[in-house]
Design goal:
Distance between the termini: 52 Å
Oligomer: single chain
Strand content: 5-15%
Strand order of the largest sheet: 1-4
Helix content: 40-55%
Number of domains: 2
Number of helices: 5
């Protein structure tokens, strides 16, 4: 079960879960998401996570869980026309500001330099391959 609120301390009594078909060890992302709730923003200097290990968890599994690679976090934010209309109806909600402050927009803005770099690399490769340099316009 996930923690959906900030807490001073998060305690894991077990590190496995039933995902609908099999019982498995929580992923690194799941562990980080739940453990990340430890420490209330603005109230606590430190958040604590306590994990009660059972004998079923191997040393390798524990290493993978705590210091292994984590799947990237991608926003699933979707704004619909209905949502925009509801925001316009309510005082204090500006759809443009909501979108600008969303995690999705942050991800898009932070990926711009990398995308521009990839475009430049592809154009440079294409430029090298093309004999007629006039075909490519920057």
């Amino acid at each position: 079960m996930g923690v959906n609120m900030p807490a001073k301390t998060v305690i894991f009594s077990q590190l496995d879960k039933f995902d609908g078909s099999i019982k498995r060890i929580v992923s690194g992302s799941e562990f980080i998401q739940m453990a990340g709730r430890a420490g209330r923003r603005g109230k606590d200097d430190v958040g604590r996570t306590i994990t009660i290990l059972n004998s079923k968890l191997s040393e390798q599994d524990l290493k993978q869980l705590t210091i292994g690679n984590v799947e990237p976090l991608n926003s699933s934010f979707q704004i619909t026309y209905s949502t925009i209309l509801k925001m316009l109806k309510q005082e204090g909600y500006n759809p443009e500001i909501v979108i600008k402050k969303s995690f999705l927009q942050h991800q898009r803005e932070s990926s711009k330099p990398e995308i521009k770099q990839k475009i430049k690399k592809i154009k440079d490769e294409l430029f090298k391959l093309t004999k007629d340099k006039e075909l490519i316009k920057y």
